[in-house]
Fold this sequence. Notes:
This protein is 27% helix and 17% strand. It has 346 residues and is of the alpha/beta class. The longest helix is centred in the last third of the chain and has 13 residues, at 249-261. The protein has eleven helices and twelve strands. It has one domain (81-325): TIM Barrel (Alpha-Beta Barrel), CATH 3.20.20. The strands form two sheets. It has a nine-stranded mixed beta sheet. Residues 91-303 form the Radical SAM core domain. Its cofactor is pyridoxal 5'-phosphate; [4Fe-4S] cluster. [4Fe-4S] cluster binds at residues 105, 109, 112. It comes from Kozakia baliensis.
Amino acid sequence: MTDLVKPHTLRRMRDLIERGLAPAEDRAALDAVAERYATAIPPTFLELIEKPDDPIGRQVIPTPAELLTAPHESIDPIGDDALSPVPGIVHRYADRALLKPLLVCPLYCRFCFRREHVGPDGGLLSDAQLDTALNWLRDHPAIREVILTGGDPLMLSPRRLGHIVRTLSAMPHVETIRIHSRVPVADPARMTPELLDAMETDRAMWLVLHANHAREMTDDARRALRAVQARAIPILSQSVLLRGVNDTPEALEALLRAFVTARIKPYYLHQLDPAPGTAHFHVPIAEGRALLADLRGRVTGLAWPTYVLDIPGGHGKVPLGPDYLDQDTEGLHVRDPNGRTHDLPL
């Protein structure tokens, strides 16, 4: 009897082609993509792919289109590098900061705005660099919230994650710790009791889950998320508006409803950040606003995310609407979800 082969994360272009996830004639172009951007498709996502260009496959399977850089695209589209006072820290807003302890992910999204930096071969802060980053946070008492991001902070060992959480929790001015992660949907088996123990704190701990399509919310993912919630850690969601993934009212509604059903509050729907080679995912802002307007009144307010643009250059996030209020010399006018206009007093 032969041993069962344990599923593994696909990383090589040869393996993608052999599995029918990419055409053999694209091998040279895909090798060129692989030299620049990391690839990883974990077993959980691999099982969900029905065809390479479906909403799951599009997110993780490399394509020659990634070699095309549009004039407006940038290797640092939201100004992380310019706003990094020490390695691992991004400080964009007065009362909060990002801590990036590593640049490793369970999968590598083809639309990632940090795609020039993330990858399986590095990006882990050394002990000295981590101490420097934590000391920077300790020395800035205006910082009330620290967001662990990366990479994916839940790829850390429980020991290292626990050290970071305990150190932040000991800073009197840090009130909130937020972890941004794709792990619960990409590799739910990593959500072990030991990792959950590492998230224990007397501060306000929040998990922000990144998922973009309802099919990512598998039974295993829901169990992993329920284990987080059982620790009294509330969960928010963030998603990116992506062409061919969630750019229809039906797909977006299904995603938002899947979040709410799993006791997750939709938080942000991001306009795509213009990283190099991502133009094939772009949905115009006007189309995104129309999508949300189409859902207004169809889905509960619990499922309503804030549609945001991270202004290129590091100038911060702003909501994109849709808008329902107009004003002219005769007064205020408001549109209801059905498009009818109603007059209001000034």
